[in-house]
Amino acid sequence: MTLMTNSDCILEMINVSKTFPGVKALDKVNLSIRKGSIHALMGENGAGKSTLMKILYGLYTPDAGGEIFFDGKPFNPKAPIDAIHTGLAMVPQEISPSANLSVAANFYLGREIKKGILMDQSAMNEKTNDILKELGIPMSVETLMQNVSVAKAQLLAIATAVSYDAKLIIMDEPTTALTESEVHQLYRIVKKVQERGIAIIYISHKLGEVFELSDEVSVIRDGEYIGTKKTTDITKEELINMMVGRDMDEMFQREDVIIGETLLEVRNLSLPGKFHDINFSVRKGEIFGIAGLVGAGRSEVVEALFGYKPAESGEIHLHGKKIEIHKPCDAIKHRIGFVTEDRKLTGLMLNMSVTDNMIMPELLPYEKHHLISEELARDVANSMKDQLRIKTPTVETIIGNLSGGNQQKVLIARWLLLEPEILILDEPTKGIDIGAKAEIYKLIVELARLGKAIIIVSSEMLELLSLSDRIMVMAEGREVGIVDRDNATQEVILEMAAGGDVPSQEEQELESEYQTQGVA
Amino acid sequence: DTLVIGAPMPSFADKWMSYLFEGINDFNDKHSDVEIKMTDANEDPSKMLNDVDNFIDAGVNALLVVPTDIAIVKPIAKKANRANIPLVIVNRLPDESAMKNVDAYVGSESIQAGIIQAESVVGMLDGKQGNIAILMGVLGHEAQIKRTEGNKQVFSQYSNIKIVAEQEGRWDRAKALQIVEDLLQAHPEINVIVANNDEMAIGALLAARKAGLTDADLIITGVDATPDALEYLGSGLDSTVFQSAKGQGYGGAEIAYKLAKGEKVQKMNWINFELVLEEQKVEYLYKYQ
Amino acid sequence: MIKEASANARKTHYTEILNKYGMLLILILLFSALSLKIDGFASFRNIFSILEQVSMFGIIAIGVTFAIVTGGIDLSSGAVVALASVVGASIVTGTEGYGMTIFAFGAAMFVGSICGLINGSITAYGRIPPFIATLGMMTMARGVAQLVSNGRPIDASSDAFTSIGDGSIFGVPGLVVIYVLVAITCHIMMSRMSFGRHVFAIGGNVNTAKICGVNVEITLLKVYILAGALAGLAGAMLTSRAYAGNPTFGNMWELDAIAAAVIGGTSLAGGVGSVPMCIVGALIIGVMNKGLNMLGVDPYWQQIIKGMIIIGAVLLDAQKRKKA
Amino acid sequence: MIKEASANARKTHYTEILNKYGMLLILILLFSALSLKIDGFASFRNIFSILEQVSMFGIIAIGVTFAIVTGGIDLSSGAVVALASVVGASIVTGTEGYGMTIFAFGAAMFVGSICGLINGSITAYGRIPPFIATLGMMTMARGVAQLVSNGRPIDASSDAFTSIGDGSIFGVPGLVVIYVLVAITCHIMMSRMSFGRHVFAIGGNVNTAKICGVNVEITLLKVYILAGALAGLAGAMLTSRAYAGNPTFGNMWELDAIAAAVIGGTSLAGGVGSVPMCIVGALIIGVMNKGLNMLGVDPYWQQIIKGMIIIGAVLLDAQKRKKA
Ligand SMILES: Nc1ncnc2c1ncn2[C@@H]1O[C@H](COP(=O)(O)OP(=O)(O)OP(=O)(O)O)[C@@H](O)[C@H]1O
Ligand SMILES: Nc1ncnc2c1ncn2[C@@H]1O[C@H](COP(=O)(O)OP(=O)(O)OP(=O)(O)O)[C@@H](O)[C@H]1O
Ligand SMILES: [Mg+2]
Ligand SMILES: [Mg+2]
Fold first, then answer.
1. Confidence class for position C157, pLDDT limits 50, 70, 90
2. Where are the transmembrane segments (chains C, D) (predicted)?
């Protein structure tokens, strides 16, 4: 390899390595990004994608021996501020805006507009508004971030990165929190950005996105650089092969499972302001999907079902008997498991070990003479680690050090260990690579075969369509209808979901404002 | 071979004590064959027990203790006895049963200070109606308990005297200043302020000045006769009570020294309180030179 | 449907006001109740007196609020008060003149800043919890104060110096004037300057703040220096009011200051707080202290009642929010 | 390649050990240094003496560790010591016999538990920050202690009762025996029982704990009751050692206890902590106190040095981790 920097490239990384205690996350990785191109970066969970990007952004220091050139000049960021000043911006994988600040404050955080020694609040509000309008993300800029939905926050993070005067923008799995319509909005933004001559590194597990957006794609596997291809020169199968190192069938084919008697029945479940009159039943061996746009109240329904945020009225029947679920422990007693939507907020105990994270819901099986046996717990965790191919040095590793996808697998393992009768999965494959996704699908079907009932909430239409026996569609907190597998198509469901889609008053006002100004 | 005397002290943040320490240091400096080590219990009796233990472990020749409170003397005496180390208690008089195991006591009875202070107030009132506010030190400290008790013993005998308020000034000038401000507002009838120590008395007189009261309006009295207080004597402060801190420190050290050498000493060594009025100001100021 | 929504909106509005100004309401209730019980409690004179008594730990509370908003804490402020008072007093002792007075105030604030600088460096660069850093500083500062003063109060009764604590401007006591000036300045810093914005960002999410290019270390350093300087200022004010510096001053003031901040709605988890509400918190404590003293409540009971009021106020506030 | 990996593994192993036992190393270094300086410092007798001195706030520190691991704190423990000591003393005052002794210890722990119950209820059900709940309790418990005792020490010099503090079993002082028993019990509770797991889960992520079916409220209640009961026990131990109960006992002990926990690596953010390391933390403070006293360091300087050692130890530990 020549050490001459290529003037075509905005970024060149040569032989970059990174070692964490016990893990070699990156091993002599090379990456070249051409100016103004959209460059997809792919690899399985834990391959080292985020780590590579964090090095670029000055969040991690790489091991000695590698070199990075940005715009032809050597580049060794010590802190994000260095990266920002050099012309880099990043949308991190786990966006967590300052919830206590307003949209505009977040937007201009670290680069506030000043008038004298004071901040020019109105200028920041105005400019934020302008930029959001331009990108087609209408929202009130004075809203506190804690009142902004995850999806909006994700779009906002992207808008923020765009608004930096950057030459290269990193987007680490920007679409995990988005539904289809928002994804298209994102595409628009990305294309707009590219038109300005800005290069983008785009990390995603979704092949569709990669082929739709990117000019080139690079793959890393187990911390090693595999190669870079022009997107037009490569097929899906070849790309998957590069990532997992073997041939794999991408399309998941569901086998049929015998469906038994009714296990769970939900009647007139309501939580004012969130959802109303939800009725459905799930049978043994059935996979029951719930579809809807973001904000339709799907998560709230399953949270109520699990007793996390209990409903105010309505009944839940299990095995034909009415049961009371006021708290999650009631649900757990009835062997209901629940993989929640928000990993950070309700999933992980970040500074605890993988084992501790797995065994928490039910400690009894690990007790010997009323004391928890570490050995027993470790063995069980290890078997789960193997079964789900969780990439972690040991099961004692602090879960915060795992890659996003592997964290998700641990959470799924947690509820599998409960051996649930009913398993609720809210966006279960968020951030999970294709290989693992297939494994999880297989697992879900396997559970169904064993006579368990599965409820799955997902924003990925294909996932729902290929897995579910029936799909309930929700809009604006109401049940629009339930479709059978045979009748369910993307169009039908989208239409149903949009049927109830009335934008909120605030959004309507903003929208009409844009129209009168002739922007939209 | 120098003698070592362990001297656990209750608080290094106490002004009056600091003169007592000076007395001890004075003795230490004048005698080359003795080394006196002081520790600070920070007003924590448990810490004082630790200090005693440590000195016993270090094998000192005698213990010179100003106890945090008199209840703590018992276990200290027991420990000293067991280790066969002579023990001198200074300043705070333990009860009889505790005194059995103590070799010598140097000091006075705290209650006396309260009595002397109260009697001076009675004299100054001269039969007039007296409405009294008492400012107490940190609740539970021996000096707070005994001095207040002495005050009340005297005041209860006079029908023209009424205790209007009792508050905790924590030995602290700033705290007393705040309390007296409030008290004078709530009870304009107050014409006597009796403080457990001089620092609080000074706080009281600053508050009185703020409230626009003159010397004639208020009788203020403290205990300790510290140099600061002596300065204010006659210009706001009406009386204070002197108890020779240096004398107690020096005297205590001397007795501990003798005991360490195996000499015989007198068990009770009284150092009396003295009332200080404006007339004696110069005389007492001289003691600090 | 529309009716419901507007009713909802109105409800939200009320609850928002309750959330924001609930403590102010509690303060007003407390004050009114005491005014009914005690003659002259609602007088100007008394209000200024409360403000004067509050001014010193109130100023500390403002500094502490900054620290708490970043997600930190400052336990050293009481000890810094002592150190600053001793240093300030030893400058003016035996001297006169306004030059020396200003110098003493400056020196007190400087000493406080140094303590704050150390707190901040240990926290920001040493990455050790501010609880421990400032706990250590608390012990050290008090030790130094005693060392400097030899454990004794230092006279500071020069006319010029005490005129700050004794004097008044248009009837407003000098200390209250200082309190108001500090409060306004700090309020602007917190709510209108990018420094304040960064303070909130760090408390909200330190990683995000870092990613956005906020210089977390420098900001923390500034915060602790500010808190230290304000504690130093409070020390100088107390010295001027008490005519002396004393190594025992400021004992446990840090707890009162923290209580004031938290009663004012500052979240110990960081990211939430404001100067005006911190003043409300300090006033609740001040009104309570004054009321209990003026009512002549037994000192033992005073402590018990004080504890109950503090918990009660925060509880009431939390309950209201929960219902809302 | 394989060689490199194994070298790496070994390095990891070292750093892991350093992370985990760094403070133990610091303790050993401190102890060795003092042993070189002071004759007889490394004797059994002295070690027991250190353990005895540490036992009381060490026990409190264990309770506080539970509270901190849930993400909370307990500032009331020092005041609870005072209250428990007064209650315990008034039971044995003027009496004799082991029955009364046991009753006094029981009563002290019961009183502590009640305080803890109140702390816990306010925190768990009132949802107000434990910092404020226990700060209020700190003031209240001390007030009640003074009320009960009328502000005076209460004699507790009965032979049976004081034999706990004075006596020893096979040469091990009674208080040390209690400390060890409490430590073992609490260590098992924390590391091996589901209660302990729940404590960690709450500190790790309270939402997740809820989702995993943990009864957060009850667990918090238990934690604060435990912390209160242990503070009560420490109060009884101190009473037996000091032959008296005293409302001034335990002043600022809560800070020593918290310092011990944090020096032992308990994270104030919650979710991290252990009983053995809390003991190491307490021992560092104890060894330091004893060493400074035996060296005859000037008390003013002692405070300064103490502050420096506490900060230094945590700093050293943090630095080591950072490098690793
Ligand atoms: N701070 C850390 N400490 C220790 N190990 C880490 C740390 N961060 C990442 N790792 C490890 O480095 C490897 C690469 O992680 P990284 O987050 O870069 O993966 P990724 O490719 O982004 O995966 P995903 O698609 O799941 O997000 C993983 O094995 C992970 O466990
Ligand atoms: N704290 C909050 N304040 C205001 N609105 C909120 C808050 N939390 C959530 N919302 C909004 O409530 C609505 C319902 O959210 P919910 O999570 O149930 O949606 P969902 O149908 O599950 O969609 P998804 O899970 O795909 O995001 C969303 O529009 C969300 O933006
Ligand atoms: Mg990643
Ligand atoms: Mg959802």
1. confident
2. 21-38, 50-69, 75-95, 102-122, 169-190, 223-243, 255-288, 300-318
